[in-house]
Design a protein that fits this description.
By secondary structure, the chain is mainly alpha-helical. It has 13 helices and 4 strands. α1 runs antiparallel to α4, α4 runs antiparallel to α8 and α6 packs across α9. The longest helix has 29 residues.
């Protein structure tokens, strides 16, 4: 298991570990968490909104976050590095503002209980986890017995899948600095599902980082692959009953773009 075809994930993991170690060695960890009443209301240190997701302040959180990001690299492989990096950037902007804002609203209602927003990209991890949950199917399921009675019904017990360990790691990460980490995880999960459900503006969903930022050296080659992908999507739409118009003069290309179903129908017509 490596970071093959996942350069953005590799950068996220290495950058998270490096910044966390650097903050500890330089003794600047106190710059990366947010105390709502002190840092935001009293001293107006709004720059902390952009800084608190850059690193963690303890090694346990670094370990579980790095494990989570590593296991979520399959999302980058399915999407491609450019779309994956663009999603991380867009989600980081939402999760930089929404959790502290909710914390500020809940603080007076909870007698100061919601006042501490811990450092670390836990919201971004859960936004990626929402994509993993929706896109990646489980390979197998297994049942964990909850009683020692062998003759108990098959419905008893806890059913898990091969994806359960990933959820367990992320759940443990969200509980390390609660209630702030739990609130951040909830917001990240909500933002990830809102991105998939079309609740985020389409301009942000379709926005992409420049290709050179994710290692795409040739924009021309990237455009060719993008055109090929759209052509294949168009052919799949034709196969499901969605008609696509082709120029009448381009007969050779029209012949090449015919789906297999259309070719079979034409063969039966010739036989009849």
């Amino acid at each position: 298991m490596t970071f093959t075809n996942a350069p953005v994930t590799r950068l996220l993991v290495l950058g998270l570990v490096a910044t966390s170690i650097g903050a500890s060695m330089l003794d600047v960890k106190h710059y990366f968490y947010i105390s709502i009443d002190t840092h935001l209301w009293k001293y107006r240190q709004f720059w902390r909104l952009l800084a608190y997701q850059l690193c963690y302040t303890n090694s346990t959180e670094v370990l579980f976050a790095a494990m989570s990001l590593y296991n979520l690299r399959v999302v980058e492989r399915m999407w491609g590095s450019r779309k994956y990096a663009s999603f991380v950037v867009v989600c980081s902007l939402f999760t930089a503002i929404i959790p502290p804002l909710l914390m500020g609203v809940l603080r007076p209602l909870s007698a100061g209980f919601f006042n501490y927003m811990p450092a670390g990209p836990t919201p971004i991890v859960f936004a990626l986890l929402a994509q993993y949950h929706s896109m990646v199917p489980h390979v197998y399921k297994y049942r964990v017995a909850t009683s020692q009675n062998i003759q108990s019904s098959d419905s008893s017990g806890l059913t898990l899948s091969d994806k359960s360990y990933q959820y367990a790691i992320a759940l443990h990460l969200s509980l390390l600095e609660w209630p702030g980490s739990v609130l951040g995880a909830f917001v990240g999960w909500a933002v990830g599902n809102a991105w998939r459900g079309g609740l985020i503006p389409a301009s942000l969903v379709t926005w992409r980082l420049p290709g050179w930022m994710v290692g795409l050296r040739s924009h021309r080659r990237g455009a060719e692959f993008e055109g090929l992908r759209r052509r294949l999507e168009g052919e799949n739409g034709s196969a499901t009953g969605v008609s696509s118009s082709l120029p009448a003069s381009d007969g050779q290309h029209a012949e090449r773009r015919r789906t297999m179903g259309q070719q079979i129908v034409d063969q039966f017509r010739e036989a009849l």
